[in-house]
Design a protein that fits this description.
The protein is 42% helix and 18% strand. The strands form 2 sheets. A 7-stranded mixed beta sheet has the order 1-2-3-4-6-8-11, sandwiched between helices. A 4-stranded mixed beta sheet has the order 5-7-9-10. Strand 2 and strand 3 form a beta hairpin. It binds ligand T3D. Ligand T3D binds next to helix 2 and strand 7.
Length: 266
Amino acid sequence: MPTREHNNTILLDISDGLAILTLNRPDRLNSFTAEMFKDLKKALNKITPEQGVRCLIITGSGRAFCAGQDLNQRAETKTSTPDLSASLEKNYNPIIRKITELEIPVLCAVNGVAAGAGSSIALACDIVFAARSASFIQAFCKIGLIPDAGGTWLLPHKLGRARALGLSLLGDKLPAQKAEEWGLIWKCVDDNKLLEEVVAIGKQLATQPTKGLSLIKRAIDKSFTNSLSEQLDLERDLQGIAGETKDFQEGVAAFLNKRNPTFNGN
Ligand code: T3D
């Protein structure tokens, strides 16, 4: 049964195992306000196996993906300065943890500029597609901040120190095509084909062995801190779990009987 939940600032549509979450403040380039954090957290909590979700796409409405923090909410007042540590602890960090810990593939369709924490949110997703006209901007340095929402981890891990520092210290626009060439994202797609292509891949992934895919995510993520020997142990353990799934049995049976598999995600 398709479900649709539209808060003011976040749209969530779930159908046939695929959830599409849209950041929806187009007049402010989908930048984050306190209300939007609340709506996003609520929507992300709906991405559960009980809701039958087996793949998530995150995208933005209008001409931008996300311009990070809404800076109107950061203007100095006479009585106080904003507590950015508290903002990260309460808002951005839980969102990045949630996205990266979801046990399903998370795709991002970067439909336009992704700046500041908007870039970090996009890059935290598992497979990132971007419209040819889109770009990634580490805008933080222009206002005296450091890349956050995982930016100082995601950029060097994906690009290495030289490119991570170049982007972070200069704040230059990185066009989507270059982002693809540098290996920062998976694929750059013509603007008018972006959502169509990502939704087609999302629908396909929602029919795959979800448990197995989540174990792949876990193994790849752990490789950044594991030695080869530790990774071999991890593969042994995770493959043991994968080998006990119904989907593994179905995959083997379908192969041997020369038919298409029907995976239920378990
Ligand atoms: O604070 C904490 O909690 C800590 C965490 C911080 C995380 C962060 O993300 S800090 C970084 C915040 N983001 C930025 O610094 C980016 C600011 N925006 C831009 O640099 C540019 O808007 C873009 C490069 C993203 C796009 O440029 P362009 O020329 O395509 O559009 P524009 O004309 O600048 O923006 C269109 C409108 O959106 C404009 O409003 P207007 O003039 O039409 O009334 C602009 O002010 C508004 N807008 C864009 N980004 C933001 C924003 N309004 C509030 N906050 C924004 N981040």
